[in-house]
Amino acid sequence: MELRVLRYFVAAAEAGSVTGGAARVHVSQPAVSRQLAALEREVGAALFERGRGALQLTHAGRRFLEMARDLLRRADEAKAVTSHSDPADVRLLAVAQSTTIERTIAAFSALHGAGLPLVDAVAASPAEVFDRVEATGADFGISTFAPPANWASRLITQVGITAHVPPGHPLFDRASVEVSELVEYPLLCMDRTHTARTSFDTAVAQAGVGLAQITEMRTASLAQAHAASGRGIAILTDQASFGVRTVRIMLDGSQVRMRLYAGWYADHFAAAHIRTWADALAAWVPTLPDVALIDAPPQVKLWGLHEEPRE
Predict the structure, then answer these.
(1) Residue 98 is part of a domain; what is its CATH number?
(2) How many angstroms separate the CA atoms of 134 and 268, rounded?
(3) Residuewise pLDDT in 10s, the chain (311 residues)
(4) DSSP label at residue 269
(5) Burial degree of 19 (CB within 10 A; 0-12, 13-18, 19+)
(6) CB-hemisphere CA count at 13 Å for 109?
(7) Which of 129, 186, 266, 276: CA 20 to 30 A from 164?
(8) pTM of the predicted structure, to 2 decimals
(9) Where is 184: in which H helix or E strand?
(10) Cα separation of 100 and 84, whole Å?
C-alpha cells in the first residue's frame, strides 16, 4: 500500500468527488479512479458508495479514512525528522501516568520546551504504559515500570517513597522511619499494579519483617484521605494533602526508592530526538540522595514525584 494512493483516497474523500480529489493532488481523474479501485481491492472492502451526487464513504471507508490520515501524518513527521536537524521541528506523542503528565512533563515543557521536540501525551496506568505505546503507535512511554528489554531506555530519576502520616500520630514529627518500625502500624498501600507498592514490598522482604495490617487501595488520593482520617499510614510518592505529613521510608539508613524510565523502540525514526528530550528531562530532575526536592521555581515543582523537604 503506497502513501501516494492514501493521499489520493484522503483527497477524494475530503473533496467529495474523485474529480475534486484529483485536482487537489494534481493527478488526472482517470488515474486517481484506477488507483482508488485498486486500493479497494487491496483492503477487501468498498470504501465509497457510488451513485449520483457527492461521493460518500461507506462505514469501512470512514474507518479507513481515520487510519489513512494517521499514516500520512506519521509519514510527514518522519520526513520532518530526516529533513530537519532542529529538534523543535519534531512532534512526539508520549504515554505516561496522568500525574506524570500534569506535574512533570507539563512543568518541564513550560521551562525547557522551546528548544526541544513538541511533546503531547496520553494517560495510562504505570503498568500499561509500554503496552499502550505499542497498541496506539505512540512514540515513547514514561513509567515506573521498566520498558521491554529490547527497547531503548533512559533512567529519568529515582523517586523516594514516603509514609503519609496524620496529625497526632507518633511518627508525625519524624523526618524518616525505618521499614522495620513502620510495618508495626496499620498501612494503606496501593495495589500491586503500582511500583510504589512493589518497591515497598521488596524493602519489607529485605528487612526480614512482616506487615501487621495492610489495606490495599487503588487511588492514591483516597489513600491519603483515609490516612488523614486516622485509618492508617499511606505509602505513596505523592505530595502531602489533607493535612498529612510525609516521612521518608528508610531501609538500613537509605531511602526506599522506585525508578522512573523513558522507553522507546530502538529503531524508532525519531530515536535520537526522543533521547535528546529524555536526557534533558533527566538533567532537570536530578536524583537526590536524601532530599526529594527539585531545584525549580515553586510554581512548577514536580508534585507527582517529590515531596517537600524538612529539617
Answers:
(1) 3.40.190.10
(2) 12
(3) 788 899 999 999 998 889 999 999 898 999 999 999 999 999 898 998 877 667 889 999 888 998 888 888 877 766 665 555 666 678 899 999 888 898 889 989 998 888 898 999 999 988 899 999 998 889 999 998 889 999 999 999 888 899 999 999 999 999 999 999 999 999 999 988 888 888 899 999 999 988 778 999 988 899 999 999 999 999 998 788 899 999 999 999 999 988 899 999 998 888 989 999 999 999 988 643 333 333 333 333 443 444 333 33
(4) T
(5) middle
(6) 16
(7) 129
(8) 0.60
(9) none
(10) 29
Is residue 117 a part of any domain in this protein? yes
CA–CA distance, 259 with 161 (Å, rounded to integer): 10
Amino acid at 228: A
Q: Report the b/e string of 297-306 with b at 16+ CB within 10 A.
A: eeebbbbbbb
Count of structural domains, the chain: 3
DSSP H or E run through 186: strand 186-190
Q: 289 with 159: CB under 8 angstroms?
A: no
Give me the domain span that covers residue 57. Answer: 3-83
- Give the Cα separation of 129 and 44 in Å (integer): 33
289 by DSSP, 3-state: which? coil
Q: What is the pLDDT of residues 211-261, one digit of tens each?
A: 778 999 988 899 999 999 999 999 998 788 899 999 999 999 999 988 899
Q: Are residues 223 and 268 in the same domain?
A: no
- Cβ–Cβ < 8 Å for 156, 142: yes
Q: Write the CATH number for 19.
A: 1.10.10.10
3-state secondary structure 135-156: HHCCCEEEECCCCCCCCEEEEE
d(CA 223, CA 213): 15
Q: Identify the three-state secondary structure at position 248.
A: strand
- The answer on 216 and 131 residing in a single domain is no
Place of cell 521518608: 248
